[in-house]
Specification:
This protein is α+β, with helices and mostly antiparallel strands. The chain is about 25% helix and about 30% strand. It contains three helices and eleven strands. The strands form two sheets. Strands 1, 2, 3, 4, 5, 6, 7, 10 and 11 form a nine-stranded antiparallel beta sheet that branches. It is elongated.
Length: about 180
Amino acid sequence: MDNNGQWVTIGAVVLLVVVIVYLVWPKGPKVTENYAYFYDLTDNKVVELKGNEVPPVIDPDTGNELVGVHFYTCGFCVESNGERFVGYYEKYTEEAKAEKLEQLRKLAAGEKVVDNTTPDQRKGQLISLDGKKWVELYSSAGQKIRFRPKMMSCPTKDDSFGAPQNCTHMQTVLEEEDTGG
């Protein structure tokens, strides 16, 4: 075999090895479920539910109504640090919830969803500071509640101030991707 033929053979073998390694190599953790925070206003506790739930929902363990809760923090979002705080609560009217669930169904089916409504036309998404008095999200009072946490200041390492981080939704790794090996 001449010199050029050797290099072609070596190149083909190297390419084959790279392709095999790429196909077999673990891709890392796979996010398989989405979780979101909800709040049980009856028992005053946080509940994590998987999936794309639209509040209010019923707690499968207690039967209590759960509302969405938007947490913020100046540090880490995990409960163990005790730094997160409730920015506001959220829920939908029955009609608005049905519309939102239909949008989510279409998205899950790969359909294109176009929302041509203006904030003034969006009714039924409710927001509250205390879980007792609810106002329309897109009302003047609702926007004040929604942006209130973002207007707060958190001290930073360099003694400046920044806005709190939103901790509302989280994704949890449930399983490693199967690598066939």
